[in-house]
Amino acid sequence: MAGKKVIAICQLGGTFKTLSDGTLSYDGGDAHAIDIDENSKYNDFKMEVAEMFNCALSSISIKYFLPGNRKTLITISNDKDLQRMIKFHGNSSSIDVYIMMEEAVAPDVSNMPASRSSRTTLSEAGMLTDTTPCVLDNDMDEINPRVLLDSTFDVHNDLPIADEHIDIPSDIALSMYMPLRDSSDEKHTKAAQQWQHNITGVGQRFNNVNDFRDALRKYSIANQFAFKYKKNDSHRVTVKCKVDGCPWRIHASRLSTTQLICIKKMNPTHTCEGSTLTTGHQATRTWVAGVIKEKLKVSPNYKPKDIVTDIKEQYGVQLNYFQAWRGKEIAKEQLQGSYKEAYGQLPLFCERIMASNPGSLATFTTKDDSTFHRLFVSFHASICGFQQGCRPLLFLGSIPLKSKYQGTLLAATAPDGDDDVFPVAFAVVDTISDDNWLWFLHQLKAALTTCHDLTIIADTENGLRESVSEVFQDESVYHAYCLRCLSEQLIREFKGQFSHEVKRLIVDDFFAAAYAPTSGGFQRCIDSIKSISLEAYNWVVESEPIHWANAFFPGARYNHMTSNFGELFYSWASEAHELPITQMVDTIRGKIMELIYTRRAVSNNWLTRLTPLREERLEKESIKVCALQVFNSDPGDNKFEVRGDSIEVVDINSYDCSCKAWQLTGLPCCHAIAVIGCLGRDPYDFCARFFTTESYRLTYSESVQPIPSDDKPLPKELARASVTVTPPPTRRPPGRPPSKKPGMVEGNKRQLQCSACKCTGHNKSTCKEIP
Asked: Of 51, 161, 487, 555, whose CB has the highest number of CB atoms within 10 Å?
């Protein structure tokens, strides 16, 4: 942009405000415009600004924002800075420039390190006036800026005050101190300036030793030096500068008969240049937690790498990743509560669940050493909703928890009348095992008043096959195997034997066999598998089709074939998995409470007899009726023949059609609707009651109540609350948790196939058969 002029819009008198995203906004004040170019000089520009706003030249500083970054103000202090500003805004015709007025009164920096005073006292606080006191070094014929700084203040009588003072013009004084000014220090310590005077000197008192350590830590960060402890216990602390030979030192001890800590001795002088904060040894985990806690409250996904960047920019402290991660863990515990304490609160928490929601079941068990073992929760609203309005159909599933103590969430969910997820019960267990599933099913059976004609869709692994039959052996309960899990087992069984395309064909035929409504259709599908692989065919035959094929399953599964129905519920747990266990359960409770309230409010506006989804499906079946013909040989017989693309037999009394669609879905198929229409009956009377709007409203008729958070237990709760529960011994392993869910179907993954030898598992470039 050589030769191009840029308009500098100079603003003075306004205030900066921090917005929610961390950016700065400038409001108010006066504005004037000056045209500048690459040949403009800093001193000329600054003088013109001073004349424009009628202020002293030495009392102003000039700052601006980089394009796209309104979080950090950049200071202009020389010609190169001015040229950089113009270059950075090369595509703009104007630049917003902010004029800062420095205070004319010097702050009390008697306890600041000398090296830091020389860099911040005059240049940052703007204490230079028309005449500035200066000191002549007795051993030299020139002005010593170090002596000037040290002799300006009385440092607790430890340093002598110079006897001779002279007045020199401010421009000379400014020229002496400008080389000592570090513009990067201003940027890095801006957020820490409030801590520069945390330590004032001898006689200062603190409530306890922790408060003193915290103040000392912040003081060192704000003044940019490092220290080390010589003595550090509950009643005395002695600290010296980390640089060998530097006399800076402070000693504080407890006042007798009190907890107060008082500074007894202090030498505030630094002969070193301070320790430039290139490492994070000054910052403890507790300090990091205190700095980031408020931002973490707003942004729970605040990443350690972002913490490292922000603390470097704001405080000049360079942390490593693990310091940031540990600080975040402490901040999370301060915001959310202690994981350990949460386990100890489980007895009282369970009592309050059942007290605030009568009819609910909340129970837990511990191991012999009092460590947490299992927790089961089922709210009264969930139990009543399932038994009054839902189909007798339960889906069992589990997901691993990524909390500090890991664990696994077990869940039982059901489909409501509109095929949405309805939570029935859940449990948190230390690990997934046969014994924990058996315990969960026992608690589930205790929560449900009746289990008649219940269908449970679940995996066959982890002992669920034996557990279901053992717990519900006296009930008419049917165990339907999860089709997705079976297909994964099938692929694993023949890993490496088939190409990706062949695996896909086998899995497709397997699913077709499961959905086939008749035994003939089932046989045709598995014969197709047999033509591909006899071993795969034998595996399918031996996998108990009575538990997963529609043609043979004795119960009612309403065409639901997989157990991963409760994904919505599992997502709630995933969002709350990092919370302590009691808060995680309460978060899930809040989600259930909101779900019930929302769906109840929506269903109150429905005007149809069936839920919207069922109304739509019934309408689609009704459209097909016009192409069908109905025949009945005997007027007294309730069986009808319906002809269309196929010939089907409908038995109205038994709600049965030979196409099996009526039995599998609970809604009349097109053949049944044709017969019902010939009889002058209403198809709605032949729909399963679970799909009616009335049943849907019964599902969500009860409410989940909040759990009181009063820390004082009631008298009847004290006995149960006396039980000790400690965290489980398992801890989260180091490293990033896996992002992919385990158990993905390998058949859906592309497999390498060599174009030369046609074998799988490698490609042509790595084939060993080719010479």
From this structure: 487
Stronger pLDDT, 725 or 28, i.e. the higher one = 725
Question: Of the candidates 25, 6, 155, which has an alpha carbon nearest to the alpha carbon of residue 89?
Answer: 6
654 membership: H or E segment, kind and range? none
Mean pLDDT (whole number) for 45-52: 86
Lowest mean pLDDT segment, chosen from 24-33, 297-306, 759-768: 759-768
pLDDT, tens only, 184-193: 445 445 566 7
SS3 percent helix, strand, coil of the chain, rounded to 5, is 40, 20, 40
Residue 641 DSSP SS3: strand
Between 165 and 394, the higher pLDDT residue:
394
Q: How far apart are CA 734 and CA 673, in angstroms?
A: 61
User: What backbone torsions phi and psi does residue 21 show, to the nearest 5 degrees?
Assistant: -90, 5
User: What b-and-e string marks burial along 682-691, b requiring 16 or more CB atoms within 10 Å of the CB?
Assistant: ebbebbbebb
**Amino acid symbol at 102:** E
Q: Could you tell me the pLDDT band of residue 164, with boundaries at 50, 70 and 90?
A: very low
Which three-class secondary structure state does DSSP give residue 253?
Answer: strand
The backbone region for 558, taken as left when phi is positive above 0, alpha when psi lies in -120 to 50, beta otherwise, is left
Q: What is the pTM of this model?
A: 0.63
The residues with which 64 forms a beta bridge, in sequence order, are 74, 97
Distances (CA, A) of 554 to 392, 441, 472, 551, 661: 14, 21, 16, 9, 15
Average pLDDT score over the chain: 79
DSSP assignment string, 363-393: EEEE-TTSBEEEEEEE-HHHHHHHHHHS-SE
Least Cα distance to 305 among 292, 289, 320, 326 occurs for 320
- CB–CB of 671/631 below 8 Å? no
Q: Is the pLDDT of residue 111 over 50?
A: no
- Determine which of 121-125, 559-563, 652-656 has the lowest per-residue pLDDT on average: 121-125
CA dist., res. 345 & res. 711, Å (int): 10
Q: Which residues are CB-neighbours of 125 under 8 A, at least 6 positions away?
A: 102, 103, 106, 107
Q: Report residue 612 as tokens.
A: 């919207």
**Alpha helices, H only, 278-427:** 285-298, 304-315, 321-336, 339-344, 346-356, 380-389
Whether the pLDDT of residue 735 is over 90: the answer is: no
Q: What are phi and psi of 280, to 5 degrees?
A: -100, 25
Predicted confidence at residue 424, as pLDDT, reads 95
pLDDT (0 to 100) of residue 279: 52
Q: Is 274 left (phi over 0), alpha (psi -120 to 50) or beta?
A: left
DSSP for residue 153? S
Cβ neighbors of 694 (< 8 A, separation 6 or more) are none
- Residue 135 pLDDT: 35
| Nearest-angstrom CA–CA distance, 62 and 764 | 66
The residues, any chain, with a CB within 8 Å of residue 206's CB and separated by 6 or more, are 212, 215, 252, 260, 261, 262
CA distance 512 to 524: 9
Q: How far apart are CA 574 and CA 322, in angstroms?
A: 24
pLDDT higher than 80, residue 78: yes
Looking at residue 715, what is its pLDDT? 52
Quick one: pLDDT band at residue 316, thresholds 50, 70, 90?
A: confident
Of 287, 226, 745, nearest to 494 by C-alpha is 745
- The pLDDT value recorded for residue 396 is 92
Torsion angle of C-alpha atoms 342, 347, 351, 357, degrees rounded to 10 = 50
DSSP state of 727: -
In a 10 Å sphere around its CB, with 0-12 CB exposed, 13-18 middle and 19+ buried, how is residue 422 labelled?
buried
Tokens of 599: 């769906």
Give the separation between CA 569 and CA 364, rounded to whole angstroms: 21
